[in-house]
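User: Could you write out the 3D structure of this protein bound to LNRAV4D5? I've included everything you need below.
Assistant: Certainly. Input first, then the structure.
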Amino acid sequence: MDDATGRRPAPAPEPASRAAPVDQPSLAWVDGAIVAVDQRALPGETRVLRLTSVDQLIAAIRSLAIRGAPAIGLAGALGVALSAYRHYTDGGWDQAAVRADAARLVAARPTAVNLAWAVRRAAGRVAAGPDAVLAEALAMVEEDAATGAAAVERACELVLARVGARPTRLLTHCNTGRLATAAVGTALGVILELGRRGLVREVLVGETRPLLQGARLTAWELGQAGIAYRVCVDSAAPAAMAQGLVDCVLVGADRIAANGDVANKIGTYGLATAAARHAIPFVVVAPESTWDRATADGSGIVIEERDPAEVTAYAGVVTAPPGAAAYNPAFDVTPAELITAIVSEDRVFVPGDARPPAASDPADRERAARPAVAPTASYQRDGAAT
Ligand SMILES: CSC[C@H]1O[C@H](OP(=O)(O)O)[C@H](O)[C@@H]1O
């Protein structure tokens, strides 16, 4: 995608990278740079990237080196701070350049509303200078950790109420743990907490084609926690439900429309359909910042289309015939009526029980003022959604 001036940006210089301890935070601000776990390298290698430019950060978000709706939001906010310090010199302060960088960060991945919300919140402090922008971004990192813990607690209560306080068989999709957030995770955070209480009999982990966030990342986090799990191909999940192997499905979200329709990793809609068929609770866990009340329902959510090569090859091995075309949406939309409950740090939203929660904070009011976005995004070969 060309930048704000219409020029195609020069490729970002490769960021520095180094090995890191297993419990390395997914994201941090260290000595004027963003230090992030490179999620593409897991589980084989725990490697961190040191990102010093907005271009490097955009490349990391688009390649899913940094991924997970809350995590990319926090990365975007820290990216505004990177830009602010870059454009703050003794000679003056180019706020317009920072705002242009913020717009490029928002466009890096279109579906997760957390990215747009967090970048806009950080950019709202630009006039106060780089230190204020960084302080706002770091405040969001702290808030994510606190809200994550509150949502996990609330969701544990709901799951135990639904399935009983006994060791439970859970199914989850993609990765929604500490790697995808600042600290606690969302759906996987719930699973890890239930595991700490001895209430997980087994977790079925959908591998999550094509980038295998489940098989690579969720399995890695569950293994570290000593929780029993099995990886399964995505298409085996409905059969597992039919076999009685699943008591509850727990997933995250990238954007929740005002009526409770949920955009999440591709494959989520099929899981919800199968769960409804087998009367299995289907629970979404996501922070309030994932709600987008400016978008009335799922038809207004932009679905990121990614490179077909992610489907026709893996890890450099071509699996489809040369030139094969592929359909590669990164997300799908699950209608609210298929969802048992959506749990955040503030509330449990049960579709059909009540009107969507009213916009309660400035971010919601700001979003409510924006027109809904186009319902789809088309894919360009350079990895940019248009
Ligand atoms: C708490 S992560 C939320 C959400 O983000 C993931 O998408 P991606 O791996 O493409 O960044 C996935 O949809 C998770 O459920």
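Residues 355-360, 368-386 have pLDDT under 50 and may be disordered.
User: Perfect, thank you.
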